[in-house]
Description:
- This protein has helices at about 15-35, 60-65, 70-80, and strands at about 1-10, 40-45, 50-55, 90-95.
- The protein is an alpha+beta fold.
- The chain has a single domain, classed as Alpha-Beta Plaits, CATH 3.30.70.100.
- InterPro entries: Dimeric_a/b-barrel.
- This is ABM domain-containing protein.
Amino acid sequence: MYARLTLLEIDTMRISATDAVEMFRREILPDLHKQPGYAGVLVMSTPEGNGALVSFWETAEAAEAGAPTGFYPEVLERYMTIFRSPPGRERYEVAFSELPAVASS
Length: 105
């Protein structure tokens, strides 16, 4: 399994971190589910607008498939106005995981 880590800063003068997470859930997550090899995501945020998304992928190829063209840059372009600066992104191989069960809010 592979993970992509995206670090970002939401411009909280334009949208609250809570509303940005809800926007992700409502507008981006359904399309993310359609991406080949998608295996899940963690979305983390602070009230100040700092955020991290860890998306999980079945293969390294799936983790990189939408990177240079396609899904990822299209999403960034569509929502660029809510970021303070362009998000950073890296890919990792998942060496170990133990995640707690968290209720969706």
